[in-house]
Amino acid sequence: MTDPRYFALPVDAVLPELCRCLEEQGGAVLEAPPGAGKSTRVPLALLDAPWRGDDRILVLEPRRVAARAVAGFMARQLGEPVGHTVGYRTRLDTRVSASTRIEVVTEGVLTRMLSNDPALEGYAAVLFDEFHERSLQADLGLALVQEVRQALREDLRLLVMSATLDVGPLAEGLALPTVRSEGRVFPVEVSHAPPGRDQDVWDHCARQVEALAGEGTVLVFLPGVGEIERLRERLSVSMPVQVLHGRLAGDAQAAVLEAPSGPRVVLATNVAETSVTIEGVTVVVDSGLERRPSYDPRRHRSRLVTRRISQANADQRAGRAGRLGPGRCVRLWAREEVLARHIEPEIHQTGLESLVLDLARWGCRDPDQLFWLGPPPAGPWRAAVQRLRALGALDGQDAITDLGRRLNDLPLAPELAALVVRGRDAGLAASAARVAVLLSERMPGLDRQVDLAERLRRFTARPGDWPLLQRALSRLNGDRKDGSAPDGALGPLLADTFPDRIARRRDGEEDRYLLADGSGARLPPGSPLAGREWLVVLDTDGRPRDAVIRLAWALGPPEVPALLARHAEWRDQVAWDDKLQKVRAERRYGVGAIAVESQPLPSPSPAQVEQGLLDGVRQQGLRVLPWTEATRQWRARAAWLHRLEPEHWPAMDDDTLLAELETWLLPFLAGRRALRDLKNLPLLDALKLRLGPGQAGELTRRLPERATVASGRAVTINYEAEGGPRLAVKLQECFGMESLPALAEGRLPLTAELLTPAGRPAAITADLAGFWRNGYGQVRKELRGRYPKHPWPEDPLAAPATGRTKARGGG
């Protein structure tokens, strides 16, 4: 480009090739690292493409923050306001006009556009930006666009852009050429500063930020809004402190992104990783944490968990310090800690009801009919189909029903959409819509109130205090008002919509409840709902045992008889009795796992007993299983491979194992009735059921149980050691070794704990050659007088390795 408004960006070098691919081959996959300029330069370059005619270019961004920022940056490059040539559209905000030719949208908007117009008339190209984030909506959108191109619009151009994804399989699956661009990142000095064992992590983070504040603008990556506020309270710096996260209103986000580049501290979630540019950043402090959903398929619950980022995320965050010149990145975790290469795709981490319903409306009942970089997992797909049938959204042949279309028309998950539809039919349109918005959008100032009725009263009384919620409500419900239904009808509506979340207080407890789905939950201390007999629990922290209730609606005594009439039934139930510590069989009248009346059941079936025993394991935890050191080490090895390659290896954490007991433990429970009967259970064989064909052998090859050292001895590796796999071996047995054995093709470092002849730690190192050069001399000086019978050569690399004393042939 020759226009002086355009400054040079690395992606400019590949724009001619990219335009040629779209012209001649209909699309491309662009691999461009952070800083290349792909998000904003590429769409502008396509404005002059002859194949565009007068049609629009559609650009997909994974987040609302990014959509607004990208559109705003491109509009400024053209010297125009947003909404003219460049506009954007998100679920809560739209700025487009008849003159708009580049339309930046969030990924869910594309699905709705395709539902209304499968041919995407008026659009010449679809660009997927930041596809490496692998959101569910991006995977779905790409699958649908690819089918549109094959069946309806051969002229529709497709461009998929990614910064960190291995694009080979993607380009091959789409049959598109790959174009690669260089990035523009100056050298970034990366250092590690983990907190001490007993040190508060956020105090430590604050001290690190304060020490770096004099070096320019500091961008701090934190997992969530709570951590942002905690850190802001502890910071003591003379420069301005700003925050950036997805819950901020658009103008507040823009104020941070467009602020002058003077020194400041910006506390941000991972919204600052990609597609947005914060001016002036030269220093990054990375907590190494992010908040992502974790899905429990058994109870159909997702919870946000704080966990370690991937290596790709870490690289992108560090790169933010090198946009303007040489920068610094301080990582608040140990250098030896190993990160997964990429984040796990969202399609493997969430319920699939929305996906199944979207595809059913599209006319697709089998996901294998479409292109996927990674297909939807079969188990969650089947579970989602069953739940949609129960809602009435799918018929017996899994085709979408009229109710399913009504649910799909709403910008909500199907269960929340069902709440809104039922509320309209019951004369509670406005109240149901408010509740749906409160359940789908978390807002500071409201999300700490456990009582939904109180949260609803506060929002209804002062909607202007939460403009994002008010905007979402307006788009969802328009000007609908509640009809003549009594105020008390909202509780039964919630119970009928979420019958598995009906909960009853446990006997003798003020704050502990049993839910209809069999899970336990408790109210937080001081909750005004304590002591209420019946609740509808709408949100918890998601823990599989004794979850903390975050949001609930109390059901009054007059509502309970009608609730039981609609939802309670007599069923044979074999369940775990915590007091008796064994399975108890009863014929129960109740709602799910909540018993109102019961009678003894004399002859339960073996299958019922096994399910009751599974309930006992869930209540007691995995500790009741017969773990051995060998079994724990095997589990740790498998868990490391999941951490490195989550898309190929199953998770082995407690929550996942407890949620999926039916798939790996149930086949080994025949004939067992009490926890004491589990003592001789072949636990290792059960865990191996989670592996795919050939994975057991691959586990042994890539992460062996033992490593052979220079003395010839095979030493057991401790895969449960803090910081990563560790080899505890006497120092003399490693003479002559310049490096430790490689694990997982060199992707997982092995640390050596070098021991004295008495078996006490002398040194810990992952770099043997460096230890012999720089650390051994001091160790030799300190220990050779204490252990004179053992060899302490001046040149350990030239000495023979031995586990013996000098008198016994050790040299």
Write a concise synopsis of the structure shown.
The protein has 811 residues and is an alpha/beta fold. Helices cover 34% and strands 19% of the residues.
What does this structure look like?
By secondary structure, this protein is an alpha/beta fold. It has five domains: 10-180, Rossmann fold; 188-347, 3-Layer(aba) Sandwich (Rossmann fold), CATH 3.40.50; 410-561, no CATH class; 571-703, no CATH class; 704-810, no CATH class. 34% of the residues lie in helices and 19% in strands. It contains 28 helices and 29 strands. A hairpin with a 4-residue loop joins strand 18 (512-515) and strand 19 (520-522). Helix 14 runs antiparallel to helix 15 (429-440). The longest helix has 16 residues, at 136-151. The N and C termini lie far apart (73 Å). Mean pLDDT is 86; it is low at 1-5.
Average pLDDT score? 86
CATH uppermost class of the largest domain: Alpha Beta
The dominant shape is globular
Which strand-content bin applies to the residues?
A: 15-25%
CATH homologous superfamily identity of the largest domain = P-loop containing nucleotide triphosphate hydrolases
Poorly predicted runs are 1-5
In the CATH classification, which architecture of the largest domain applies? 3-Layer(aba) Sandwich
Largest sheet: 8 strands, mixed
* Sheet with the most strands: spatial strand order: 4-3-5-2-6-7-1-8
Distance between the termini: 73 Å
Radius of gyration: 30 Å
